[in-house]
Design brief:
The chain is of the alpha/beta class. It folds into 2 domains: about 110 residues, ATPase, nucleotide binding domain (Nucleotidyltransferase, domain 5, 2-Layer Sandwich); about 160 residues, 2-Layer Sandwich (Nucleotidyltransferase, domain 5). Helix content is about 40%, strand content about 20%. The chain has 10 helices and 12 strands. The strands form 3 sheets. Strands 3-2-1-4-7 form a 5-stranded mixed sheet. It has a 5-stranded mixed sheet with strand order 10-9-8-11-12, sandwiched between helices. It is globular, with a radius of gyration of 18 Å. The chain starts with a strand and ends with a helix.
């Protein structure tokens, strides 16, 4: 058996799978309810052992919010997880599970999940953008996950699109997440970002206007990504997909507005297919790659 863990600012999800990647059992909990990194690790290890019926687990993949240091299995300093600075996540779990544990950025692994089992099947070069509490991306280049020299590739949320813009939790001014991230939107509106996306989907005028404004800024980010990566496909996932009817036309319009990105090389745009399963599917696939 193998296992995958999807650690987010809101929830932590665990999946146990067969060696072919087929998930056979899952569990989840609220991250804040577990309170500390140690308690999260203990809960996750307990679930893996329970869901595998006490049988041997050969490998575990973990997706966690960046920045991460995959080589050292270290969660460095994620802006949306307070108190999680320099947490040796892989080592802590290995002590309890007694098998190899491989850490990666959560957006990277969600992208890997969509590539193998979701909207990116059959594609060789794609960008997966997750837009929810934060904004991140997974880069699949020529069929392989690319995480960069230090494991920090794909931090789309921290690309600066207006240096005179608002301050983000990462310490930068005017980065994508400051304009589009669910946390920033929630602070501005005094309500969870999920409610904003739901209201926009229901046609609430104010919510629609704010989501469209955020989508315009995201569209500029997609232009930058297209010029750097030249992907065949951009897959959009996360909570924003609840407002897909409002968001997709704006993203498409902004992408088409670039005079530099001609139609023949303009990437296709698709909604993610795995929903909130993408992270755990990707974590399982990451474990499979390390068997």
């Amino acid at each position: 058996m193998i296992a995958g863990i999807d650690l987010g600012a809101t929830q932590v999800r665990v999946a146990v799978a067969r060696s072919d990647g087929r998930i056979v059992a899952t569990a989840r909990n609220r991250t804040d309810a577990l309170r500390t990194p140690r308690r999260v690790v203990v809960w996750a290890s307990d679930q893996i052992l329970r869901l595998s019926d006490g049988g041997p687990v050969d490998c575990v993949g973990i997706g966690a919010p960046g920045p991460t240091d995959p080589a050292r299995g270290l969660l460095v300093n994620p802006p949306n997880l307070r108190g999680w600075k320099n947490v040796p996540l892989a080592a802590l779990l290995e002590e309890l599970i007694d098998c190899p544990v491989h850490l990666e950025n959560d957006a990277n692994l969600a992208g890997l999940g969509e590539f193998h089992q979701g909207a990116g099947r059959g594609i060789r070069t794609m960008v997966y953008v997750t837009w929810s509490t934060g904004v991140g991306a997974g880069l699949i280049l020529d069929g392989k996950l690319f995480s960069g020299a230090h494991g920090a590739a794909g931090e789309v949320g921290h690309m600066i699109i207006d240096p005179s813009g608002p301050l983000d939790a990462c310490g930068q001014h005017g980065c994508v997440e400051a304009f589009c991230g669910g946390k920033a939107l929630a602070r501005e509106l005094g309500a969870p970002a999920e409610q904003l996306f739901d209201r926009a989907a229901d046609g609430d005028t104010r919510a629609v206007a704010r989501v469209r404004d955020a989508a315009t800024h995201m569209g500029w980010a997609l232009i930058n990504l297209s010029n750097i990566i030249d992907p065949e496909l951009i897959v959009m996932g996360g909570g924003v997909t609840r407002s897909w009817r409002q968001v997709a036309p704006v993203l498409t319009r902004v992408l088409r507005s670039s005079p530099f990105i001609k139609a023949r090389r303009r990437p296709s745009l698709r909604r993610a297919r795995l929903g909130d399963r993408a992270g755990q599917v990707g974590a399982v696939e990451w474990a499979r790659e390390h068997l």
